[in-house]
Write a structure and sequence with these properties.
This protein has 380 residues and is of the alpha/beta class. It folds into 2 domains: 142 residues, NAD(P)-binding Rossmann-like Domain (Rossmann fold); 188 residues, Dihydrodipicolinate Reductase, domain 2, CATH 3.30.360.10. The chain has 12 helices and 14 strands. A hairpin with an 8-residue loop joins strand 12 and strand 13. Helix 4 packs parallel to helix 5. The longest helix is centred in the C-terminal third of the chain and has 20 residues. The radius of gyration is 21 Å and the shape is globular. The chain starts with 7 loop residues before the first strand and ends in a 31-residue tail after the last strand.
């Protein structure tokens, strides 16, 4: 791999709200390391608005292939609708660009493996593709993970992962939402995946999942609610709830360990103050130990900028970035297993969804008419 230039060149693909509201601030935060040189969108008006908001000399394109050939970016930030992620990620990788893609990186395990096959050809030190899981990043999450993985809180025992949000009918009027072929699933795939990824980041490998899903309100192809029971490799047991029908919106992770409970409560992002540590009665008297559990003085909120910094560091080093490879595939497999368990009515174990399994190429397993009798939109 050739040496990286002093300042990396970035391009944004898809110039909607996520690009303007999250990727532009992230790039500005790391302006000394990376500069935005190009943007791609099939909508010329949106493209012009984005270029104006960028406030720099950003060249606009309506075709990804033309941009890759002309601008030759080192890094592509993908904010396009999910149905395009696999194709655009592979296209960028084949052009030699690293990729940081909004969730979901792809719509199935088969698509994920196709992306992995396009990474680091011939054993090169890149390019690699990462998925935006910004809730992993920031000082609070890093501190909690260190405490959990080192056993500083005692053995993890019970966990809860909750994404209970609210989306109305207008939200689903966007043509690609609520459809298997264009979104890959409902709140399990498009909303709760952030908290579920954070849960796996904190607790490690899962081994078994038993799930349910339903369409309780919205007349869409995919679910609007899912629940699951999960067993982890170390024996930790967890509950998971994903919803887009909940008026009081909250995102929450809670882990009860032998010596303390750690809980994160937020909505779309967190800082140190959102992490709370409660000692068990037998540990409360050890003041020094309890103080060590508190989040660090440096307060780095979760954000696209926090993750982009990690990706840029990996690019400089020529190493696989976080949020990619087997680590990110574990999250995609977890979502596929949740759907398989919900739709088949039986437990699913890690590693069982392989080529030949109907849930390998599609999260719905080939049967979109899965809803129980009487559910809204059943058989749609």
């Amino acid at each position: 791999m050739s040496p990286q230039p002093a300042r990396l060149r970035a391009a944004v693909v898809g110039t909607g709200a996520i690009a303007r509201g999250s990727h532009l601030p992230a790039l500005a935060e790391h302006a000394d390391e990376v500069g935005l040189v190009a943007a791609v969108d099939v909508n010329p008006a949106m493209l012009d608005d984005f270029r104006a908001a960028a406030g720099t000399d950003v060249k606009g394109y309506t075709r990804l292939d033309e941009m890759l050939a002309d601008a030759r970016p080192d890094l592509v930030l993908l904010g396009s609708p999910p149905a395009f992620h696999r194709e655009q990620t592979v296209q960028a990788l084949n052009a030699g660009a690293w990729v940081l893609c909004e969730k979901p990186l792809c719509l199935s395990l088969a698509e994920y493996d196709a992306i992995a096959a396009a990474e680091a050809p011939g054993g090169a030190a890149g390019p690699y593709a990462s998925v935006v899981f910004q809730h992993r990043y920031g000082s609070g999450a890093a501190h909690a993970r260190e405490l959990l993985t080192t056993g500083a809180l005692g053995r993890p025992l019970v966990a809860h992962c909750q994404t209970t949000w609210y989306r109305d009918a207008a939200y689903y009027s966007v043509p690609w939402r609520g459809r298997w072929a264009t979104e890959g699933g409902g709140p399990s795939m498009g909303h709760g995946i952030h908290q579920m990824d954070l849960m796996l980041h904190l607790l490690g490998d899962w081994t078994e999942i038993r799930a349910m899903a339903g369409r309780l309100v919205h007349d869409v192809e995919s679910e609007d609610v899912s629940t699951a029971l999960v067993r982890f490799a170390d024996g930790t047991m967890a509950t998971v709830v994903n919803s887009v029908v909940s008026p009081q919106e909250v995102s929450r992770i809670r882990v009860d360990c032998a010596d303390a409970t750690v809980e994160l409560t937020h909505l779309y992002g967190h800082s140190n103050d959102d992490w709370v540590y409660t000692p068990a009665p037998h540990a409360a008297g050890d003041a020094a130990r309890v103080r060590s559990w508190r989040t660090p003085a440096a307060n780095r909120p979760s954000s696209h900028g926090a993750q982009l910094g990690e990706v840029l560091a990996a690019m400089r080093a020529g190493t696989r970035p976080p949020g990619s490879g087997a680590d990110a595939r574990r999250t995609v497999e977890f979502v596929a297993a949740l759907y398989k368990s919900a739709f088949t009515g039986r437990p699913v174990h890690a590693g069982e969804i392989v080529p030949g399994d109907p849930y390998y190429p599609a999260m719905h397993g080939g049967d979109p008419a899965w809803a129980p009798a009487g559910a809204a939109g059943a058989g749609a």
